[in-house]
Amino acid sequence: MRAAIASAIERHSLSEEIRANNHKLSELQEELHNQKLQEEIVRTKGEIYASVIHDINGPLTIISGFIEIINQHISSATMLEGGGLELVKDRLSRITRQVNNCIEISQRYLSFLRKRSTERAPIGTNQILSDLGELLKVHPSAHKNELVIHPLSEDVVAEINGTDLIQILLNLTINALQCSPEPHHVEIYGQRLTQPLDLSQFADGPESQFVNRDELQNVAPLLAVFVRDNGPGVAPEILPKIFQPFFTTKTGNKGTGLGLAIVHRFVKEGKGAIHLQTKVGKGTTFAVYLPAHDLTAKK
Questions:
Q1: pLDDT grade, residue 114 (50/70/90)?
Q2: Inter-helix orientation angle 83-113/162-177, to 10°
Q3: What is the DSSP letter of 167?
Q4: Fold category of 125-294 in CATH
Q5: Strand, helix or coil for residue 185
Q6: DSSP per residue, 153-164
Q7: Where are the alpha helices (DSSP H) in 114-161?
Q8: Residue 220: phi, psi to the nearest 5?
Q9: What one-character DSSP code corresponds to residue 120?
Q10: Domain range summary for the chain, segments of one domain joined by +
């Protein structure tokens, strides 16, 4: 009898101990979950803030270039008139547009932080390409290289915010211009695709990568934009890493490792895809595919 009572007490104590341990384990799991969630929030916000700095740096660099041009024209002049005055007016107008770009970029990220969807501002791709050319005229990376931008023979509107599209093309083009310290050629061109992509033709390998295959809205018409350079190409061991945030092959403070990560995010948000083809010693081509509609179509 005494042994049975002792056994029952022991079983009860063991049961209580197991219950207490389970409770502690549940608390620990919840604490770990909350910690991971907090770390994810901090990491996400950190990437957002870093992206804001990276994106705004582009327009600020361009603004700086225009201000330098204005200073060169007015530093030794006692008065401005004729062509000199018109040049200053033109550059000030362009500076205003770049300031507005900074404001729009900031608003886009604030909308993301507040979990609000940003309004899309549809604009023809040829206008985007024209703006891109204007922006890059005074960018330091374009000075010693040859940059050629071809308009589309059939203009279309990409189903993506116009600011996002120009940021995609700016990042890809600046990346191409900075791929080598040696003078090289960068070309941008595009086309309207009347058929969906045959995804079986895009195989990943040491010289090729297709990004966002599963989430691509593969319905015609599609916009295809290509950024091609004849630089050094991308080594096979680096290729899988290039869209990772903060990954860069540039030395010193020349690269943040954010440009291609931002491109990846914008293309994914726009239900598009990226096809990267590269050959060491020959160059690299980025192809961006985005859902689109014709200029005359109403959305």
A1: low
A2: 110
A3: H
A4: Heat Shock Protein 90 (3.30.565)
A5: strand
A6: SS-EEESS-HHH
A7: 125-136
A8: -70, 150
A9: P
A10: 1-115, 125-294
